Amino acid sequence: MAAAARLAARGRPLSQPNPAVGCILVREGSVVGRGWTREGGRPHAEAVALDQAGAASRGATAYVTLEPCAHQSERGPACADLLAAAGLARVVVGVEDPDPRTAGAGIARLRSAGIAAALIHSPEAEASLIGYLTRARHGRPHVTLKLATSLDGCIATGKGESQWITGDAARAHVHSRRAMSDAILVGGGTWRKDQPQLDVRLPGLADRSPQRVVLTRGVAPDRAKVINAPAQIARLDAQYLYVEAGTDVAASFIEQDLVDRLELYRAPILIGGGWPALGDIGLASLAEAHGRWQCVERRQLGSDSYEAYSRTR
User: Fold this and answer.
1) Fewer Cβ neighbours under 10 Å: the N or C end of the chain?
2) What is the domain count for the chain?
3) pLDDT classification of 230: cutoffs 50, 70, 90
4) Is residue 241 domain-shared with residue 194, that is, in the same domain?
């Protein structure tokens, strides 16, 4: 299942409006088929894996990160029916689909066809689907807030100079994170001051540049969407929102508890008297700051450090 979850990452975020799902078919100890959701949401991961496996799928076990869909669509047949018709022996599901058209029905349909179907509640599968699940549970995209700071927590000098705090390796990593998002947001002040491109500048990944979103009450910038308040991210057609914001916008997203993942890039420099990464986030006491964030990833990027924290709710 962990391997299927990693496979699903290949479909993110191009699978929109569908979730990025991974599927692996195993027969007699060997992988006979692999698939992930393709661009635009079709074909589904199960259909790709079955097509690759062909006749070898009969009697195999399918490991699929999300419950196979049970509803009919003009774009293709239900995956539960495809798996049943292929003569699989067993289907292992990582996450039940929150879509009411499928929730539980996909597994039930497989069992009624005589296939052993098991739901195992896989953490790896859930992590790979977190954008889809956040949209279903909270009615908004999964939000990652990126901050690049000095050791003393500054994002710019006192005069506003910010390019560049981190080095080449860290900036390339940021572009890889952009490529995993379907929308990227900055504040109006950042947009007017820096005129950021907000694209993906990595070889072979330029087509994965996310939709640009600006948080402002001003005029809509060229080829960018505008929202007027953080809560309006619910209106965005996105599962994964990447926020590269200044002091005030970053603080407002945290204050309104809209940040699900915090990605912190820290350069081995001291600025002193610079612009802080965050403004007031509305804490009434120091005790309220504890227990909110859990470190889930840490690595070195050249001379810079990278840490990712998940919001604990």
Assistant:
1) C
2) 2
3) very high
4) yes
